[in-house]
Amino acid sequence: MFLKTPIEYLKGVGPAKAEILQKELQIFTFNDLLYHFPYRHVDRSKIYKISDIDMVNLPYIQLKGKISNVHSVGKGQSERLVADFNDGTGVIELVWFQGAKWIKQSLTLGKEYIVFGKPAEFNRSYSIVHPTLDEPEDAANKMYLHIQPFYNVSEKMKVRGLDSKAIMKLLNQLISDSRFDIEETLPDYLIKNETLLDRKQSLINIHFPKSLVMLNEAQKRLKFEELFYAQLKILRFKQNRTQLYNGIQLTRIGDYFNTFYNTKLPFELTNAQKRVIKEIRADVKSGKQMNRLVQGDVGSGKTVVALMSMLIALDNNYQACMMAPTEILATQHYQSLTQLLEGMDIKVHLLTGSTKAKQRRQIHEDLMNGSCHILVGTHALIESSVQFNNLGLAVIDEQHRFGVEQRSKLWHKNTYPPHVLVMTATPIPRTLAMTLYGDLDTSVIDEMPAGRKPIQTIHKYDNHRLAVYGFMKSEIAKGRQVYLVYPLIEESEKMTYKNLTDGFEQICREFQQPHYHVSMVHGKMKAADKETEMKMFIKGITHIMVATTVIEVGVNVPNASVMVIESAEKFGLSQLHQLRGRVGRGADQSYCLLLTDFKLSNDARQRIKTMVETNDGFKISEVDLQLRGPGDIEGTIQSGILNMRIADISKDNALLMEARQKVIDILEKDPKLENPENIVLNSYFELYNKTSRWGSIS
Ligand code: ADP
Ligand code: MG
Prior knowledge:
This protein has about 700 residues and is α/β, with parallel strands linked by helices.
C-alpha cells in the first residue's frame, strides 16, 4: 500500500514537482518512481591512474591529481580552454569549449582535484572534455565515491531543479523509508534454482548497487522477471488455443503425395526440407491445430515444402490454400505449382485483386463444390466472400506482411480451424521470434539445395559505375540476366521516381551497343503493366530489369545472376539481403554489387561490410537487430510485447531462452498454476496482464 501513495507525498516533492513528474515521466506513485530505472551507472568508487587509462577501458573514469597549466587554444568558434592535469603517473588534457572564462578563474594551480569524465584518445594522448571537478574533501562527503545512478530527465525538469541528482535523492528518500517493503513475484523454488536475487534487494540495487556485481545481479533478476512473465503470457495463449480448438486430423499419406514425391519432384529434397516436412506431418496428424512458422533463408526451397504439405491435406480429402503478399508473387507461386503438378489430377486456381468477375464466380463455385483443390492468391483470399468446401491447410508465404489479425481470419474459413503454416524468408533473430511468435512452433530450413554457389558480394563506390556496367555486359554476354535496383526514399517519392527513370534512360543508352533489352518496374505502374514487364524478364526476353524494391520478395528467375543495388547505403540490412536473394537461384556463379556514395555513416559502413562478409541470413538478422534495436524491425513496432522496461531483446538472448524454458517446464507440470508454490504466479500473471505499465504493480 505504501508504494501506491501519490508521489506528491514523498518528502521533497510536493504538488508542483509532482505535476512535473507526472507530465514528464508518468510518475504518479511511489512505485512509479521506484520503477524509473537509471539508464546507466557510473563507477565512482575507484580512483584510477592516468598511466592505466589504456588498460582500464571504461567509458567514464575518475582521477586524482593537480592542474599544472591552463591556456586558451584556437580562435573564434573553435576557441577552447585547455588544462594539463597530472597525477604523478602521467598527464592528460582537460578541455572546455564553453564557459572558459569562468572556469579559468575558478581553477587553482597546484591544488588537488578529483576529475571525472569520459577520456578520449587523440594522437596517442588522452583528454577529457568538460570534466566534472571536485575537491577531495567534498567528494568524500557526497555520494560520489559510490556507484552512481544516472536518470533520464527532460529539459523542463532540469529547469525546475529535477535533474538526475535530484531524482537520485528522491529514490534514496523512498528506499530508506521504514515502510518501504517489496513483495516477491516469483516462486521461492525458482529463485533458488535460478540463483536470483530477491525482488526487494533487486529493486534497491538497481538504483544504488553495493557493487558492480550486485548491480549485475539486480539487473539479471528484474530482466528475468520481465521475460518470464512475457513468456508466460505467450505460452498460456498457446495453451488456451490448443485446448480450445481441436485440429483437423490429417492421418493419411496417399496418392497425391506419393505420386508427386516419386514421379514429379525434380530434385532430391535437402535434409532440412525432409526434416521440416516430417515436423509438419507430425503436427497435422496430432489432432491439434498446427500453427507452425517455417523460417528458411531466401532460396532454401520453402515452396516445395508448402506444396507437399498441401498434398497431405488433399490426400485426406481437404482443400488447401496459399497466400502471398503481392500479385506478382501469387502469380509466380501459381505458375510454379501448376508446373510442378503437371499431369496430376489437381485443380489449382489463382485469385487476386485483378481476377475478373466471371472467373471469380467460377472460382467461388469450384471452391464450394470442392472441385478446386488448391487456391493460390493474395489477401483477396481472406475476403469473406471466399468460402471453401473443407479447407484443411492454409499456407501463408512471407508472413510478416500479413499480421496476426489476418492470420487468424483464416481460422474462420472452416468449422474447425485449418492448420496454419507460416513461411518467412526474413530471418528473425531467435529471441525476437520467441517474443513475437512465441506461440507458434518453429521449423528452420537451415540448408541450401546442393550445387548452389555462394553469391559473391562486392562493394563499389559509385564513381566506379562504368566498371560495373562493363561487368554487367560481360555477364549478359554469357547469357545471364541482371537486376538493377534503386532505393525507395520515402520522404521523396518524386525523387525516387526521377532516380529510377534517369537510371533507366542511362542504362538504355549504355546498353544500346550491343542491343540489350531493358525493362522497368516500379510501384506506381499498373499491375498489368508490371506483370507484362516481369513476364518478359522471367521468360528471358529482357536482359536487365531496372526496378525499385517491388521485386524484393520471392521472385524466382534462376537465370538472373547479377544484382546491382544503387545507393545501397540507403537500404536496411534485411532488405539488402532479400534483394540479394533474387540471384544465386541457379547453377551459375552469381554476384551482388553494392554501389554506394563515398561518404558513409558508421552504421551504413557496418551494413555493407556485413553484406560483403556473409550470406547467412540469420547472422545478418542478428547484426540488423544490434544496429537498429528491436523497435525498428519490421512489424514489431505495434507489438506491445516488445515494450520491455529493462530486458533488451537484442542482448538478453540467453536469459530469454532460460526464462522461456522455465515457463515451459512449469506449465507442463502445473498447467493451471494451481500448486500452492505457483499461486504467486497466477496472481501476478493477472496483474501483469491487466496493465501495460509493468511498474504499476506493487
Ligand atoms: P524460397 O525458400 O526462397 O521460397 P523457393 O522455394 O522459391 O525458395 O526455391 C528456390 C529454387 O530452388 C527454386 O527454383 C526451387 O525449384 C529450387 N529448389 C528447391 N528445393 C530444391 C532442392 N532440394 N534441390 C534443388 N533445387 C531446389
Ligand atoms: Mg518463396
